[in-house]
Amino acid sequence: MGIDLTIPSATATFEVRGAVMRVIGVSGGPLEVRVDEGLVFARYLGQEPRIWSDVSLTSVMDLFAADSPISTFLRKQGALPLRQVLLASLTSSLDATNDQA
Description:
This protein is an alpha+beta fold. The protein has helices spanning 57-65, 69-76, 81-100; strands spanning 13-17, 20-24, 31-36, 39-44, 53-54. A five-stranded antiparallel β-sheet has the order 1-2-3-4-5. Helix 1 (57-65) packs antiparallel against helix 3. The radius of gyration is 14 Å and the shape is globular. The chain starts with 12 loop residues before the first strand and ends with a helix.
């Protein structure tokens, strides 16, 4: 199950560090976002252990629709919302199978 992200406010600061974007000024604490093989992953720097988690489909679509530096970063890094749809579908199918067992 993916984590939910909120659209960063206008006061948030964005810093690109290679293939990772750090976002400061979001609820939940500083956040890092990256794209791997078209999928969007994120982690909060305040949580321990710092584990990369997939971002929920709704959050990815909201981030793509937003006019912010993070949407530009995701596009440049090759994020593919369709892959996120497939991941969400596969995850929900597996959850349904596990519930039946």
